[in-house]
Design goal:
alpha/beta; disordered C terminus; single chain; globular; 2 domains; Rossmann fold
Amino acid sequence: MIRPIYSLMLLGAQPLLRRKLRRRGVQEPGYLEHVDERFGRYQGSTGPGRLWIHAVSLGETRAAAILITALRAERPDVRLLLTHGTATGRAEGAKLLREGDAQAWLPWDTPKAVRGFLNHWKPAVGVLMETEVWPNLIALCREQGVPLALANARLSEKSLRGARRLPRLSRPAYGGLRAVWAQTETDARRLAQAGATVQGVFGNLKFDAAPAPEQLERGRGWRALQDRPVVMFASSREGEEAGFLQAARSQAGVQWLLVPRHPQRFDEVAALAAQAGFRVSRRSGWGELPASADVWIGDSLGEMALYYAMADVALLGGSFAPLGGQNLIEAAACDCPVVMGPHTFNFNEAAQLAQQAGAALRVSSIDEGVREAVALAREPGRREVAVEACEAFSSAHRGAALKTARAVLGLLERPVLEA
């Protein structure tokens, strides 16, 4: 009985969703494109049988890219349908498409919209990336015989508590998944407590990402031209930059690199740095070399490897406010040691493992974080030990992509037998 009530609430919220899309579209025009798809209305003809992968936002799409590479290595003729929930995710996903693939918005989770999606695309198998569990989507996939898996799956303690507050809605949703492949044993335990049947613990796909060699080369070349240490604030979030800039004012002789997590905030963060009295230069305005400034603003997408290669040390965004932290795996893959704050609950096990390996350092505040990052950047011997720890940490946790790809293809090849 609870799912019909949930559906009615979502139906009533549709005008709010449209308003939100219009508001987000002012800064990110991608939200204004193909809006009808959000409500289950799709254009054009399509053939059935695609492998459908849902990656809601930028981080999940990058994880999906690693899985897609492994899938194509195993089965080059696989045809994909990519769905997303954010404009940055869809823009990144467009880079992954090949002839015969398709891309769309995942619809709002009402029965009518989900049926419109499934009836139009007729996917053979669905793969949800990381945390995307939607009650109507899962129930209707089960009803229509579409095997649905949760890959690179993670579940925080906070999310588990939320699921437990509505067990009659959440347990059938988690229990309706055909397969769940968790990142860690802790995630597997929480997912099982939420009602999922976990088939394997494969690790985190992001460990299998290979940083773009040309970005690493350019970034390290630019770093070599600097005569002072470079300290980066990676994927900073709203509410964190002001404290960072205030702490940075007390540290002389440092080149600061500030890379906001969300592109719609690039202008805001650049203005914030200028208002704090720093000379600011933005990546979008550089030519062959970075311009001279106190603070560089990384205002581009898809260049995190470049920024990590430019930096001696990176502060981890989202970890200095109670936001759960951002992915530190990419930093380690680029040999960039990390200083993280107290809030890493979204990536808790990876953060703990990185700290144990010596690839990351935990602090209690942004002030302490800035001091520790500068100290590490100014001590070449200590930093070299941390760089070696990054290399060891990254190599020790690879392998999830091949395991996940083979499990997905197993569903694709025999969905009817397991229905």
